[in-house]
């Protein structure tokens, strides 16, 4: 290494908005993603892993979400040619690049899934990180809404595969075309010039998307002149008249008891709009395709209140919501809410090739789904602590390592204490920190007699916490076994707690 | 979306030096890493996933490898405070940061493994990428060489777990202290001032590390005045005299038939160097600990020719080499070579806390190990193509999707063709591209009769390639079954090819 310079010590912390994941946090996520991948694979989706870095040119630099125009990417310039590179901010932009780049080699349609981190150069906040996981599945090159139906069904299957019970989730499906038909009726969409009223429609979309949060009055204010929040901040509205807003609100409230009844109501609302009618037809087709596969309304429903904020959706949109209640930070019961969403976006690949390629897909919010599984108690005990072989005689390290080896050969997680063995209490504290079920102890005297001590740390902890002297006597937390019985006795003990 | 601007189309390609991974490339790597993780976990190592982004301050900005001082990291400045952030270039620097940051919370010693991408701002070349996977296991806070021995044994276990047979690999262990003892004897290390001759020792280390490539003459040239390569490029040498070089070369050639004989030879070579003798003792301890766990010299050996290039190693160093031959690009047989390496580095955490914390670890070259498994034929057939349900009647999409659903419910990967169904030939071409074993076909007439056609695409391909007319007749590649027998018949067919 170069000569030591007198520099201030670096701070031992990650950049703000970044964090580390330890132990079970890593394995639980990996397990969950593996289960999802299995469902995706069963549906014929192939894995894809793109590079984390893209050219800013290919990425389009900013998030395509009109809701958050100021949020950016982490970007830097290449040393040699000055080209701007950036970390991907989602999985859709890289998919568009791959679909364009490999269009002659990939199967058409191309079904792919991908899972991995994305990065956003946003202001971090509590529980809001600048690196997080996404898990996406998309079908590129399939114009038929059968592709959308497939993804909705697959999403329901994936949720059940990771441990969300039927009845604890609902996948809601809507169609942007129906909404656009309603906008046409309301006079804020001109089919002969789709760019007209674009900003107004964006504002309406975002307003509808906030129905749960702001209620009808808030949404109406945002569709009209604008809305003042509690802090006094004013959000400019779309400028719709009350009559126009009535039409849009009618759409929001069009959900009926059955998919057929909802479709009939929507058909009334879109009136003469060709686009709107096309959208209703598509919703009916999706409902029929799902029914033919046995996905009932307890799993997937047509629901006009789902709009999804992103401007780029062009047809069906969908959202998976967890319907069970959890307690929020103030102890109030509330529904868990959305964990996945997606829809059809037919124009994304066009940026590269000039050709429109139909695409549809879903993105699962990995951290939210993990939090839901944790709230449901579905993640406990997936990572057991190791058996710790303690060290009584430093010079018999070989014996201790051999014990750990034997345990591992029998499929038991095991390790030797590798710190300074002088203070035996520290070794037991270490075993405690490791959440070890069992400690192995063998002093010189025991080694000579061909025996060792097995310390049941789970029972030990129970006794320390609550048990009476009688229980302690009847079930000793530490006992001597012959050296040759090490593996069998530890297996026996672990089996007792596995049940 | 914003108004369309007339901009040149972006190029559909990743930045240079980056690539995408498709299908089996993704699952094979994931499978291999899962097997390695299982071995690491069995040894008591816990997973850790640090953020991809670190402050440049925490990272130390440049690779700590004196061999490549000009290679850097991908770095950029924060918008608000101007702080420099960068993508991690390895897994060791983030571990050092975590070990310092969480030193009061982590178990001590802390065993951790991690796997994920790292990024290097290097000039890309053929097969040389700027993003690649590393898979590391380290023990922080264990001064005893038992920790090094554990990692060597675990490395051997991991190689066997992923499919490298015993006999096809060897883990070589050496000790930097022995080499430093030899350097002391040769007069290029002054124990009273370790910074003296640092550059010279760096050059000697790199020279030794290239023994396989340059041979004895090349290494001697680099230890002396320098070496001219075939292209005429001159590399400056360490400036050792012939006598000094003799002493170092003697170390390189100290390997004997048994570990004990090698240790005895090394003891002669380090003469009166206290550091050197300590190193030999450590090697003997490691050998004894490995023997007590049954790791024979067919798996792990003491080998003084292993030095590892990195300047920061302070004690034991180790390397896993695959010993089987593969054909190189010119068709010549050559040994596959190194797939993993590591060693003890006791000073890394000190940067943050001022306190020296002993650490030792290993890094597996994920891509090289995958290439080795591929060369050994251990990766074939791990990802089967889906059964493709073809579409004869667009309006009966629900029936086709139900067929795929039933197959999936029976654990069979299956999908419906979602492209334009008009040209049936395209559907079969698609099935071919998907490497489908079976296609399902049902026209209106068949639907009415309650039957469908199963097309055996594997047999079909065989017949197309080679079979005579007789074989074709005796084993039809397409046959009709009752609709109700779909799953059973496909299972039967797949079972035939699974064996």
UniProtKB/TrEMBL annotation, chains A, B:
Its main location: cytoplasm. Keywords: Aminoacyl-tRNA synthetase, ATP-binding, Cytoplasm, Ligase, Nucleotide-binding, Protein biosynthesis. The gene is hisS. Homodimer. GO terms for biological process: histidyl-tRNA aminoacylation. InterPro entries: aa-tRNA-synth_II (IPR006195), aa-tRNA-synth_II/BPL/LPL (IPR045864), Anticodon-bd (IPR004154), Anticodon-bd_dom_sf (IPR036621), His-tRNA-ligase (IPR015807), HisRS-like_core (IPR041715), HisRS/HisZ (IPR004516), HisRS_anticodon (IPR033656). GO terms for molecular function: ATP binding; histidine-tRNA ligase activity. Gene3D superfamilies: Anticodon-binding domain, Bira Bifunctional Protein, Domain 2. It comes from Pseudothioclava arenosa. Its EC number is 6.1.1.21. This is Histidine--tRNA ligase.
